[in-house]
DNA sequence: AATATGTGATTGCAAATTGCAACTGGTTGC
DNA sequence: GCAACCAGTTGCAATTTGCAATCACATATT
């Protein structure tokens, strides 16, 4: 962290922040999964992150200004992690990573549906999602009263695919 | 490489391919720097990659189908590395990484100018660049006869900034 | 009051990865 | 013939990763 940067290239500097196998997955789970607590991130991780790695990355993301940490009033030991604007603006990168991975790699159908919807929705949908994240994480004033949130829409699509898959397995 | 994937999430699968500190930098140097040979990638690396890491990553990128390797007719020991369509389609991600890094991190001016121009040009400019990369790396038919290539334009802008910086240092 | 469970981590340790520096075996240019 | 160039490889120390157990404390259950 204290070391000098390898270069002043913006791509390199970005990779110095989140160029590893876990950091973006933690942010993905906060953005798309709505995770706010250590335990949620730990036990509901699709990839099975271990607690030492999670703790280390959360500290790093905190140092880098990607997230903030506040006390949960409901429980003295509970911490609430929030995204900063800096992290919220990674959403377009997440969307592109999802599209690229869906196209070129063997992504599972149920975990690809979100990427597909984000790709179809394009930048306007990303902006709507980012606006919702600003309300949720930064306390921005809410002015989108009507309809389900983008996360809810994505989540519902995911569950629909899972339900259909269960039907197909049963019917086969 | 042979291990099972951690999950079928397209973002995770993408990170399993290039979620490290070097892979995207090598592809960046091929895309924006026009590097095609091992030695070029090694000695003209802004970040100073070491030869064992470079060799390892080139092999991995080869295995993953991100690049191909052919003999250079001019020299029996020279290899030419080419981007595949899979890698060329990372350009939008590179552009976003550059924009994000330029906005949120302490990127140097001369290495940010390319990111700025790519951001201003938007998806149409990315598509033009990708078309040029397909001509250069995939042997696609060239049908853009007029004007400088996108890489040339970006390179010229970089050199202009460097020249101006030298003037300012001299004049200060 | 005692016990179980939930909380965000930390610790110990083995394995894997990284990164520096030197080196290899071969090709080409002078 | 000899220096320079080519794509790597090798040895080794330092760092990072990842699993499993554990910690100190807070709250819920009985």
Automatic annotation (TrEMBL), chains A, B:
<keyword id="KW-0804">Transcription</keyword>
<protein>
    <submittedName>
        <fullName>MarR family transcriptional regulator</fullName>
    </submittedName>
</protein>
<keyword id="KW-0238">DNA-binding</keyword>
<dbReference type="InterPro" id="IPR036390">
    <property type="entry name" value="WH_DNA-bd_sf"/>
</dbReference>
<dbReference type="InterPro" id="IPR036388">
    <property type="entry name" value="WH-like_DNA-bd_sf"/>
</dbReference>
<keyword id="KW-0805">Transcription regulation</keyword>
<dbReference type="Pfam" id="PF01638">
    <property type="entry name" value="HxlR"/>
</dbReference>
<dbReference type="InterPro" id="IPR002577">
    <property type="entry name" value="HTH_HxlR"/>
</dbReference>
<feature type="domain" description="HTH hxlR-type">
    <location>
        <begin position="9"/>
        <end position="109"/>
    </location>
</feature>
<dbReference type="GO" id="GO:0003677">
    <property type="term" value="F:DNA binding"/>
</dbReference>
């Amino acid at each position: 962290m204290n070391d000098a940067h390898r270069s002043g290239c913006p791509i390199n500097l970005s990779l110095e922040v989140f160029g590893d196998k876990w950091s973006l997955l933690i942010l993905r789970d906060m953005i798309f999964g709505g995770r706010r607590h250590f335990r949620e991130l730990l036990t509901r991780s699709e990839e099975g992150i271990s607690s030492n790695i999670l703790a280390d990355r959360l500290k790093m993301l905190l140092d880098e200004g990607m997230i903030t940490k506040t006390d949960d009033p409901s429980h003295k030991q509970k911490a609430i992690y929030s995204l900063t604007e800096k992290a919220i603006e990674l959403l377009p990168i997440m969307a592109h990573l999802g599209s690229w991975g869906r196209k070129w790699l063997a992504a599972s159908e149920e975990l690809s549906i979100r990427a597909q919807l984000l790709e179809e929705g394009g930048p306007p949908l990303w902006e709507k999602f980012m606006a919702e994240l600003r309300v949720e994480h930064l306390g921005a004033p809410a002015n989108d009263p009507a309809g389900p949130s983008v996360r809810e829409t994505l989540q519902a699509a995911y569950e629909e695919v899972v339900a259909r898959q269960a039907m197909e397995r049963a019917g086969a």
